[in-house]
Design a protein that fits this description.
The protein is an alpha/beta fold. The chain is 48% helix and 16% strand. It has eight helices and eight strands, in the order E-H-E-H-E-H-E-H-E-H-E-H-E-H-E-H. The chain is elongated and about 60 Å long. 39% of the residues are buried.
């Protein structure tokens, strides 16, 4: 069967985001054995979903597997799924949609990996159980998104002395509140994990500026910021796992 993989991201004007998605789709193509793999955006800039599907169709594939590349459930995920389904019906193309990234143990391992690399890069010799961690999420007005985020946070709590979370916008605790709270617990060091998929404007400016502003109120300076999620083999494997789940479902339905 000739299969295509289409990754749907929310969308960003930042070139780094597009470069990351291109690397991710290329690596997924190679590891997954797809005829074609690429990305598209829900909003902000093209290629949009309809163009992404058209590009797959041009490759004469028998099946398009769509991966909503979202860390959280919520309205944006719903919009991506609805638009994809509508276009699929209009074009009468065989297409299946995977689950998003959330509620996977893989995300826990990615966070731990980022924090481990941060310690190595800065020659931090403290054990993980001596380190405090603050995970910064984007924030959402959708309760389900917050629940998915907290699920991942809970997965790393046993690995460190203390793990707390906060949000960049839309809900609390804010970054200021998160830093205030974690410093009150007298940490030896605070490792900050930006829980963002890409190096977009939030990572380049917003998170950094908010952290700097928050730290002006404290004399504590032993704080380090890890890299965002970005291009990661674990994430590639998660994409392929989600794709494999829906492919198995198709085979099961055929055999019923």
């Amino acid at each position: 069967m000739r299969k295509a993989l289409l990754i749907i991201d929310r969308g960003s004007k930042e070139l780094e985001v597009q470069h990351e998605l291109l690397k991710i789709s290329n690596q997924a193509k190679e590891k997954g054995g797809y005829i074609y793999s690429n990305f598209c955006f829900l909003e902000v800039i093209p290629p949009y979903i309809d163009e992404g599907i058209r590009n797959c169709i041009k490759e004469n594939v028998d099946l398009i597997i769509v991966m909503p590349y979202f860390l959280y459930p919520g309205m944006k995920l719903k919009d991506a799924v609805k638009k994809t389904a509508a276009i699929s019906k209009e074009k009468q193309v065989k297409l299946v949609i995977t689950k998003p990234l959330c509620y996977s143990e893989v995300l826990k391992f990615v966070i731990i990996d980022r924090l481990t690399k941060l310690k190595l890069l800065n020659d931090i010799r403290l054990q993980d159980k001596e380190c405090d961690v603050l995970v910064i999420g984007h924030g959402s007005s959708d309760r389900r998104a917050t629940e998915a985020f907290i699920f991942t946070i809970n997965g790393i709590k046993h690995s460190y002395r203390n793990v707390e979370y906060c949000f960049l916008e839309l809900e609390g605790p804010t970054i200021q509140q998160g830093i205030n709270s974690i410093i009150k617990k007298n940490p030896k060091i605070v490792l900050i994990m930006p829980y963002f998929l890409h190096k977009g404007i939030h990572i380049k400016h917003d998170v950094i500026n908010e952290v700097k502003t928050a730290l002006k109120r404290h004399s504590f300076t032993n704080i380090l910021i890890a890299d965002h999620i970005g291009v990661d083999n674990n994430m590639i494997n998660l994409i392929l796992r989600r794709a494999n789940e829906v492919e198995k479902r198709i085979v099961y339905e055929r055999n019923e």
